[in-house]
Amino acid sequence: MSLTLAARNGQSTEAAKRAASPLAIRGMTVSYGQKPAIFSVDMTVQPGSMTAIIGPNGAGKSTLLKAALGILTPLAGETTAFGRSVAQVRDRIAYVPQRASVDWDFPTRVIDVVLMGLYGQLGLLGRVRSHHRARAMDCLERVGMDGFATRQIGQLSGGQQQRVFLARALAQDADLYLLDEPFAGVDAATEKAIITVLKSLRDAGKTVVAVHHDLSTVIEYFDHVFLINTRRVAEGPVAEVFNEKTLQEAYGGRLAGAQMDALGGVLA
Amino acid sequence: MIFDALTLQLGYNATLVTLGAALLGMAAGVGGTFLFLRKRALVSDAISHATLPGVGLAFMVMVAMGGDGRNLIGLLIGAALSAGIGLLILSWLSNRTRLNEDAAIGAVLSVFFGFGIVLLTIIQTMTSGRQAGLEGFLLGSTAGMLRVDAMVIAISAALTLALVLLLRRPLTLASFDPEFATSIGQNVRRTDLAMMGIVLAVTVVGLKIVGLILIVALLIIPPVTARFWTERADHVVILSGALGGISAFVGAALSAALPDLPTGPIIVLVGFCLFGLSLLLAPGRGVLSAVVRHRSYQRRVHLRQGLLALAQGQPIYEKLTLKLLRNEGWALPDGVATDQGRARAARALLDETRWQLIRRDPSFEAAAAHYDGLTPIERVLTADQIIEIDGRIPVPEVAS
């Protein structure tokens, strides 16, 4: 009797956690063809946290984000954001895709890309007014790109392009920021600029979730971590779950001994 | 004669055709822009070829019902229906089977066109089919254009323009960053469908004037041409509409003025002339400007390398380098620096030394990223920073 009560209590606290979470994923399975990219994954992002999604190549890190946002159609599973369906709260979510996913020769300028972050609010025909432009310029300034507003986006370096994408997300003024490999292939100055902005978002009470591939910076940059290798391996505060055991489990034999040694200094 | 045509003084029918063509050209230029930006230009070729069976079947149905098989509205409805079916098959093939879009385009295009030709041949053998003139849909024919035909074209063109204006933001997002578009709640599939609907409408309406084989040119050449002149998607749309309108207007006027010149092909050739000019002459993206830019860059690289060699007392091997240095008056024919050349060389070496210093210093990382061997360091650092840098280094020796 008391056992079932405890179980029910456990269930209801789980449900309450999911309802309060900026992003809660349950039983998510996505497959390309017959091979699942992620299998029955649960994730509950802590409000106000900065969470790294880490795992080896092909572990389904990007797939998880895309499926949560409906960019990919999952085979099974459901996603809630702020306790409601994602479709109902899209204006509170900003997504930064991988830089390689777009054509940088597209005829558009830096400022135009940032203004795209306001499209949701502008609607189909709303005119872009001077306060919209000022807002876009503010966002560019926050990532140190205000001097590039009228450049065609293809003329930027990879790191600069990534910062423009981040500025677009800032323009959305969201409560949850989802970033797919924001630090991939960027220079150190850009990495510093991006992490500064992300931390300022977290300090302002926003939630940040980023697909991350550099294990050596996880502790410095993030407070929560989500390890995945097709299935969820571990999830929680960095100090509790980011350790040799979970990393071995997520990366299997793929994490070279040398990498492990390099991490030895930073791991708990 | 040509002037008369361009100023619409060649009589009622020629004026009707010219104005109708100009409107169609505008609609095609605007409607084709996002097809081009979405990198799906050839889908329009499949759509246009898929209209042919519809034209043939519509003719047969109208004759069977005792009407006039040549009724344009009826034929265009048939064309739209069969093009729509072709489009559905195309998207099914490329989304749901292992065929890529290019293979699917080839399959739909050839099968529908082949079927259409069979129908046209059968119609030729029908008693009522002799005078049908359906071959006109292949390459366009403006001879018997009626006022009502021109009105249909005008209304469709206006609707297309309005629709593109209304959907410009979703269309831009779907072309540039479909994942982001989805993340803000846009239904990208529906946007793509709307884009295809616009293209289908332009194609069907353009059948009469340019014909199904060449309509793809009207959809694609104007945006490609416009792209040479601007780096902004909204400007590409406007320019492309203008270029399409001008090509069609001039082409239709030419073919009205000079007998025996077919309208559709002339329009396409006028459009191609504008494309050729843009390809050569456009400022940022044109071929000539690229050559000029490359030459000037090469010249600056050679001068810089030559100056550094002079400063370090090394011999200059490359003829081009020596020639450029001599032209500037910085070196003598035997490769010895002039006084002016020595001063320049010293400055180049100082600049290079400063660059190498900040490239080694992580605190200058952002500035050091601008290093390309050519940019003077004054452009990246303030005077104070340069003084600070100079304090760290021994003044470079200058070969004297």
Features of the shown structure:
heterodimer; A: 268 residues; alpha/beta; four-stranded antiparallel β-sheet; 10 strands; B: 400 residues; mainly alpha; ABC transporter involved in vitamin B12 uptake, BtuC; 2 domains
Commentary on this structure:
Chain A has 268 residues and is an alpha/beta fold. Chain A contains 11 helices and 10 strands. Chain A has a 6-stranded mixed beta sheet, with helices on both faces. The mean pLDDT of chain A is 90. With 400 residues, chain B is mainly α. Chain B folds into 2 domains: 2-282, ABC transporter involved in vitamin B12 uptake, BtuC (Orthogonal Bundle); 288-390, no CATH class. Chain B is built from 19 helices and no strands. In chain B, α2 (12-37) packs antiparallel against α11, α3 crosses α5 and α12 packs across α13. The mean pLDDT of chain B is 89.
What is the secondary structure topology, with strand pairs?
The complex is a heterodimer of chains A (268) and B (400).
Chain A: H1 2-20, E1 23-32, E2 35-45, E3 50-54, H2 61-69, E4 76-81, E5 84-85, E6 93-96, H3 110-116, H4 119-122, H5 130-142, H6 158-171, E7 176-179, H7 188-203, E8 207-211, H8 218-221, E9 224-229, E10 231-237, H9 238-241, H10 244-251, H11 257-264
Parallel strand pairs in A: 3-8, 3-9, 6-7, 7-8
Antiparallel strand pairs in A: 1-2, 1-4, 4-5, 9-10
Chain B: H1 2-6, H2 12-37, H3 43-49, H4 51-64, H5 72-96, H6 101-125, H7 136-139, H8 147-166, H9 168-176, H10 178-183, H11 188-210, H12 215-227, H13 233-257, H14 263-281, H15 287-311, H16 319-327, H17 339-360, H18 365-368, H19 383-392
Helix pairs in contact in B: 2-8, 2-11, 2-12, 2-13, 3-5, 3-6, 4-5, 4-6, 5-6, 5-11, 8-11, 12-13, 12-14, 13-14, 15-16, 15-17
